[in-house]
Specification:
This protein is an alpha+beta fold and 327 residues long. It has 4 domains: 68 residues, Arc Repressor Mutant, subunit A (Orthogonal Bundle); 51 residues; 87 residues, Roll (SH3 type barrels); 79 residues. Helices cover 37% and strands 23% of the residues. It is elongated and about 90 Å long. InterPro entries: CBASS_pafABC_assoc_protein (IPR051534), WCX_dom (IPR057727), WH-like_DNA-bd_sf (IPR036388), WYL_dom (IPR026881).
Length: 327
Amino acid sequence: MTPAARLSRPPLERMLRIHEELRRGALTNCTKLTELLEVSRKTVVRDIAFMRDRLDLPIEYDAQIQAYRYTHPVNAFPTVQVTEGELMALLVARRALEQYEGTPFHRQLKIAFEKLTGGLKDRISFSPAEELGSVSFKNIGLGKADVAVFNALSGAVLRQHAVEFDYRKPGEKKAARRKVEPYHLSHRENLWYLVGLDGERTGLRTFALPRIAAVRVMNKTFQRPRDFSPEKFFANAFGVLGGEGNHVVVVRFDATVADHIRERVWHESQEMRELAGGVLELTLRLGALPEVERWVLGWGAHAEVVAPAELRERLRASAATLSRMYK
């Protein structure tokens, strides 16, 4: 077995193997178990202590035969209680990771899930037919990202090491080299973003991972400010991009789409008001307008911006452009 395989063996799987050896009366000592499980003596001793002290299994060390044994027969290993709700949660997690199939993250997510559930394999089975019929996920526009870029940046965020990388702004062909103190990774609207302090610019910046390349983790370390909060950073953003503005956005949706608006939380600041004729009024407090402008356009003639005037004018200009385009 390779070192990676040894590391991936879950503790519960080891204990089940120890239980089987003890149950059938085999000579069970640390030397044999370290070879059988391919772990250290310290790990074996810790597992046995857990089985005896936490799971109340009748294990004792017999000095005469220099081995562990059960003091009385034990047929079944103590069951890990998994409720129906927890089973459904596992099923949802299993299906959720499938949406990443074909992306660089799928293999790592699959391995992580198998590690988490490996010890339950004798009690839980996933039937493909039942699985497909119970839960499904569908995301449109799932973001692309290089797993090597993600791993390098996530490690730098955790260890608080500065990084440098090539970054291409939207719509530009050439990338520029950036030096950044990486504070946070955020998955928003199906895409990964890095939030960090750009050494050549003022304030925090947001970088989309698909536009990052040639990452180098530097020896230079930094101290992330204690008052940094990703929730606060994204608080006035409708999606990803916040701003210094203080816009109170009011949009009215007709009865055709009002239910679709009611059914979701679009932003932490949202307030809804029911109007005559099934019309729904949504109020948001945002720092920038471009993202909410694109969102309102997606609802077509079913949505009307009441305020601010700046957003109404932007939408009027977009509508005029669309009208010319589709003549």
